[in-house]
Design goal:
The protein is mainly α. The chain has helices spanning 2-12, 16-29, 33-45, 50-61, 65-77, 81-93, 97-109, 115-125, 129-141, 148-157, 161-173, 180-188, 194-211, 214-230, 234-248, 254-273, 277-291, 297-316, 320-334, 343-359, 363-377, 383-402, 406-418, 426-445, 449-462, 469-488.
């Protein structure tokens, strides 16, 4: 109340910024929502169009997205620079990425704080990593210190680990302790750096405890729980998830609701991975309960992820009928309008639907189902979608080969290999190993033994044991055939 009174005195003296601050306090801090909305509208009527931007931002937080967009557009038409940023963020969350980039770039050109970082986020969503790097470096040059964390993250995702580590160290030297979690995530990817990563997660959690920032603490706990899970420290991971749930369960609004849903989905995937399928189902239902019914794109993503993975757990339990129903919910509800970053889960659900058909003895439908999946997702560029399409092509080739059509099976494997290059992410290199092994198998079946051995040799020369179970399986198959050929031609 003292702050409101102080701003009120300044507003009486004609301070326009003070009036906006009062509206912000009323709407965001004091739960006097109606008064805040009324003041934003009054500010806009009196000619300061920042009132429109402030009201639109409030409506976004309240989930009233359809009311926010026209307010931002009206503010932009009146020359309000910050509205470009808010409209760009809204469009990006709604999946209109190209339109979002136009607004975010304009905001950056007008000098709006945070615009360069937001522009980089938009580029990253389109896998335009170099453009994202340029925007993040511009953000740092413009004094946006919060850009250090995503800059290091993007460099890490591009495999430029040394540069990423240099960025994180530079940030720490400048006192940017907000990079602890992302720096920890980077070190998890580097051999022998797990202890350093755990120390960074611990420092992040300690810092959040000191600052009292509930959202940052939830973020740090979520990533440390995942870290424990990736190391196979399942009990510690589950304890961390429990701590996170206790932390946020009193208030599932806004960002905390997002973290609650995401944590439940992540816990479910961890439990699925160790064969605790029934418990995984409970976790997925918790995620769906928290996220369903919201038009928040991130919560919609959690619904898609939890439904798809729930289908996987049901299949593992051989509850095929229930799995079919769950997968149909994803395909029917999200194929035409997937949330941003949700397309891999939707594509995964399509693939799961074909495999369920095979489980139920409906292999006669499988080829046409694979064809529809490939037609729907074959041109997508996201790595995990490409991985799903690659697996679909190889499964399709497997069915054709088993029916005696080895030429089509070989052609299917070649088609997969044609779409993979040396710059691809690890998941696509896994698909390459699988395709080379499968192609060698079908070439052998077709009596083309020299070509088969060349394909198996490419597996043996190009991959190492222990990187991935599918790579290990391809290596085992290649060694088996090499032994067969050596016995035939000593």
């Amino acid at each position: 109340m003292e702050a409101v009174e102080a701003y009120g005195r300044a507003a009486d003296l004609g301070d326009l910024e003070a009036r906006l601050n009062i509206a912000d306090l009323l709407a965001h801090e004091l739960d006097r929502l109606d008064e805040g909305i009324a003041l934003y509208r009054a500010i806009a009527r009196e000619g300061d169009k920042r009132g429109l931007t402030g009201l639109g931002t409030l409506f976004l937080e309240l989930g009233r997205r359809s009311e926010a967009e026209p307010l931002f557009r009206e503010a932009i038409s009146a020359g309000e620079a910050h509205a470009h940023l808010q409209l760009g963020l809204l469009l990006h969350e709604d999946g209109h990425t190209e339109d979002a980039l136009v607004e975010l770039r304009r905001a950056a050109e007008l000098g709006v704080e945070g615009a360069w970082s937001s522009l980089a986020f938009g580029f990253a969503g389109l896998d335009r990593s170099e453009d994202a790097l340029q925007a993040l470096r511009a953000a740092i040059a413009a004094g946006e210190g919060e850009a250090y964390a995503p800059l290091g993250e993007v460099l890490g995702e591009m495999g430029r680990y040394d540069e990423a580590e240099e960025i994180f160290e530079e940030a720490l030297e400048k006192g940017r302790t907000d990079v602890f979690v992302e720096y920890g995530n980077l070190l998890v990817e580097l051999e022998g750096r797990d202890e350093d990563a755990e120390m960074l997660y611990r420092r992040a959690i300690e810092q959040c405890g000191e600052s009292g920032d509930k959202e940052d603490l939830a973020y740090a706990l979520l990533h440390r729980a995942r870290f424990f899970g990736e190391l196979g420290r399942v009990d510690e991971a589950l304890d961390e998830f429990a701590r996170l749930n206790e932390h946020i369960s009193a208030s599932y609004d806004g960002e905390l609701r997002r973290y609650g849903a995401e944590a439940a989905a992540s816990r479910g995937w961890l439990l699925h991975g160790v064969g605790r399928y029934e418990e995984a189902l409970v976790a997925y239902d918790e995620a769906i309960h928290l996220a369903r019914g919201s038009d928040d794109p991130w919560l919609r993503l959690q619904v898609v992820a939890a439904l798809h993975r729930k289908g996987l757990s049901l299949r593992a339990l051989e509850r095929y009928g229930e799995a079919v129903e769950i997968v149909a919910e994803v395909i029917d509800g999200f194929s035409d309008d997937p949330p941003p970053k949700g397309l891999p889960e939707v594509a995964g659900a399509w693939l799961l639907s074909v495999r369920l058909a095979c489980d139920l003895g409906q292999e006669d439908r499988a080829i046409s189902m694979y064809d529809r999946l490939i037609a729907r997702f074959g041109d997508e560029v996201a790595e995990r979608v490409r991985e799903t399409v690659g697996r679909a092509r190889l499964s399709r080739a497997e069915l054709l080969g088993r029916d005696g059509d080895t030429d089509e099976a070989i052609a299917g494997c070649n088609e997969v290999l044609t779409g993979i290059d040396a710059q691809d992410e690890f998941c696509m290199r896994v698909i390459r190993a699988m395709a080379l092994g499968d192609r060698g198998h079908w070439l052998h079946k077709a009596g083309r033994h020299d070509e088969a051995m060349a394909s198996f040799r490419a597996v043996l020369d190009g991959f190492e044991e222990g990187q991935d179970p599918d790579i290990d399986a391809a290596l085992t198959r290649a060694r088996l055939y090499r032994r067969i050929y050596r016995e035939r031609c000593p």
